[in-house]
TrEMBL record:
Signal peptide: none annotated. It comes from the Bacteria. This is CinA-like protein. It comes from Spirosoma montaniterrae. Pfam families: CinA, CinA_KH, MoCF_biosynth.
Length: 419
């Protein structure tokens, strides 16, 4: 029987609850724990209040084998994690000679004067195992209490990651007999979550008990995450590959990649492989498509530039859209989007041109063209492909979904040319 090791990750700090900083620690820690076979069952954030920290520790002990805390280990009075842990464990603070030597050396190397507050960072709960921090002054701490492991780490992401990678994860692997947890992500686009679920229902129902499927929708995409748990990593990899091979014929036209693939990376690789250049004309997306394309390192090999033609005057002057077309059909029309895509290809001298034009919202819609009406196009020397999108009322969502769909249309056109 596979022994499941459960973890809870707790971040401490008012600044997290106030929304003044983004908590990236819990996401990173959970990923790393999964990689060594420890399953995170809860993530929590509490402020700098002793009662709240004590309460969450007592709750976490009921559901987790490993409790990892980050934050509250600085030298100032609002950093109360160590004192609160003393209360929780029923012990006193004791100055640790190794911790003091490290803090002293840290300040001496930088020619800075140590204060009593700095020396206080070497005071640890009496039952703590000192975990040396070579990347800062706040020590890491390891506790074993009532058949549970507690780990306290600095909240600074760089220090936390170094301590986890070099000190804590190896120690956890030695302490627990952990299972192997493997993930495989299938990246789909252009099909809704419910339609996808119906199409693969029989396959999903036939999955082995130790392989679980999750649907992760995000702005026009759905990630299918397969999670396999066992004791043999190679066997799990083979089983996941077999399941992917079984499901692919059902959804292959919607699959653009696997694991960490992104649409902008996939289309970039296609352009690079085919030695093609790309130009972009954006209206309703306001440069977001270009931002996604240029987020890929090396995109200068195929991306030449873009024109954000928000005003109709620029559509005419820079893209060569016909004033008559705009007058008869409007900026949000198939006729206009075709001329925008071909116009940017011609103006920038690229092999491929893509374009977006629509009513992103929250206002500007009409009975004939309500908010969320958007046209996209891809132009090559051989053809122009267009799509009409009928989206919702939310501007940011419409911009992101439109970007996903125009990149996917580009992917499809490039693949058509291959096929």
């Amino acid at each position: 029987m596979i022994n499941t090791i459960r973890a809870e990750v707790i971040t401490i700090g008012d600044e997290i609850l106030f929304g003044q900083i983004t908590d990236t620690n819990t996401q990173w820690i959970s990923t790393e724990l999964t990689n060594i076979g420890i399953r995170t069952v809860r993530k929590s954030s509490v402020g700098d209040q002793a009662d709240a920290i004590l309460e969450i520790l007592r709750e976490a002990h009921q559901r987790a084998d490993v409790i990892i805390l980050t934050g509250g280990l600085g030298p100032t009075k609002d950093d109360i994690t160590k004192k609160t842990l003393c209360t929780y464990f029923g012990v006193e603070l004791v100055r640790n000679a190794d911790a003091l030597a490290l803090v002293t050396s840290f300040f001496e190397k930088r020619g800075r004067e140590m204060t009593d507050l700095n020396r206080g960072q070497a005071d640890l709960p009496a039952n703590a195992v000192y975990i040396q921090n070579d990347w800062g002054t706040a020590p890491g701490m390891w506790f074993e209490h009532n058949q549970c492991v507690y780990v306290s780490l600095p909240g600074v992401p760089f220090e936390m990651k170094q301590l986890m990678t070099n000190r804590i994860l190896p120690r956890l692997r030695q302490h627990f007999e952990t299972p192997v947890i493997k993930h495989k992500m299938i990246r789909t686009v252009g099909i809704g979550e419910s339609f996808l679920a119906e199409r693969i229902e029989a396959w999903e129902d036939a999955l082995p008990a130790h392989i679980k499927l999750a649907y992760l929708p995000h702005f026009g995409q759905v990630r299918l995450r397969l999670t396999a748990t066992g004791t043999d990593e190679s066997a799990l990899d083979r089983e996941l590959a077999e399941q992917v091979a079984i499901v692919m014929p059902l959804i292959d036209k919607h699959v653009f990649g696997f694991d960490n693939d992104e649409l902008e990376t996939v289309v970039g690789q296609l352009l690079k492989t085919k030695n093609l250049t790309l130009g972009i004309a954006e209206s309703c997306t306001g440069g977001y498509v270009s931002s996604r394309i240029t987020s890929v390192p090396g995109s200068s090999a195929y991306f030449l530039g873009s024109i954000v033609s928000y005003a109709n005057e620029l559509k005419v002057k820079q893209l060569g859209v016909s004033p008559d077309t705009l007058a008869r059909h409007g900026a949000v029309s198939e006729e206009t989007i075709r001329q925008m895509a071909e116009g940017v290809r011609r103006t920038l001298g690229t092999d491929v041109g893509i374009a977006t034009s629509g009513i992103a919202g929250p206002d500007g819609g009409t009975p004939d063209k309500p908010v969320g009406t958007i046209w996209i196009a891809v132009a090559t020397p051989e053809r122009i492909a267009t799509r009409l999108l009928k989206l919702g009322q939310y501007r940011d969502q419409n911009i992101q979904i439109t970007t996903t769909y125009v990149l996917n249309l580009l992917r499809e056109v490039l693949k058509w040319n291959t096929d």
